[in-house]
Amino acid sequence: MHPGGIGGGRRVEAGMDDGGRRHIGTEERRARLALRHRLAGTARAAGPEAVAEALVALHGTDPATVYLAVAARLAEPVKAVPETERALYEDRTLVRMHGMRHTVFVFPADLTAVVHASTGLMVAARERASLLKDMAKAGAPDAAWLAEVEASALSALARRGQATAAELAADEPRLREQFVYAAGKSYEGVHTVSTRLLRVLGVEGKVVRGRPLGSWTSSQFRWAVAPEHPELDEAGAQSELLRRWLEACGPATEADLKWWTGWRVTEVRRALTTIGAQTVSLDEGTTGFVTRDDTEPVSDPGEPWAALLPALDPTAMAWQHRDWYLAPELRPQLFDRSGNVGPTVWWNGRVVGGWAQRGDGEIVWRVLDPTAGREAEPTVAAEAERLRRVLAEARVTPRFRTPLEKELSA
To answer: Per-residue pLDDT tens for 383-394?
Structure first.
């Protein structure tokens, strides 16, 4: 069953444009989002693996985002923290690693080889070359020396199972070596070999982040040797990743796909051709793409729904062009200056406001879009209560703070 069929609500009528192509309007795009991203009440998932599978990737730059993104989509949200920890650190069905756009994500374990081949290898080559270049400029030891340190560090990590950079440096003291970065520049700094090397090994798929040092909200992680995976062909891996993402987020424009993957436009076009993607027209007058078997109309959720999504949630950050679910006038309140989205309130497939947690644990929210109406308030309030139970005694402050979140949390 295609994920678009979850829910069993009113069937959305299929339309055609003047050229005979399938037309997918904003109403249907919001219905697809509600169902495929497991946000509507009838579409909620049983566990974190199902959430990650539905979304392809969970943003992991802010550790709390992973847990709260899962909680918003579970039928029983209070299970989000223990079940996500189980999936990440016991069963290893989810893996935290570098992915698209050189960003940390949490992926289903069976997707790690695809991500590594499709996006990781390109980034890894640049990262290693940059490290060697910076070390050479600083007069630090050469590539042969770095290779020795790397092999020693990986052996130590394999013996320990999981370890911090400081623990690895106890086994391999050369990891403590420092070198000056960008000497003479305004941004000159001192880098430690361990910091840069572990980052390179991460994007190369040799190590992954293990358990955090503190609670589930901590941003300090141990490292672990990456699970083995097959080495895949780059073009084939790109086609598979794009196919999975289109199943979750289609229709999407070429610009959306280039932005989300971080690939060159030629790679995006090659992958679209390989999977036989179909073109559709969108309300904005642009061309979108869906997988070849995803042209049938979907059913809407069948009932109104609301969601409180965390900062950097994968739904809010999935598309580059967001006007169909986010009014441009709301962006200054909900995004920081670098384009990172803060905590958002959703109503029937669109962002209508934001939320925050105060120091005493209270969840506060505000609807900024007057078209949501009072009808939304009881459902949003119920979602705030669901979130309060998930957080319990935990306190969460987004890594990238936005104007509305700062105001509400004050």
So the answer is: 999 999 999 999
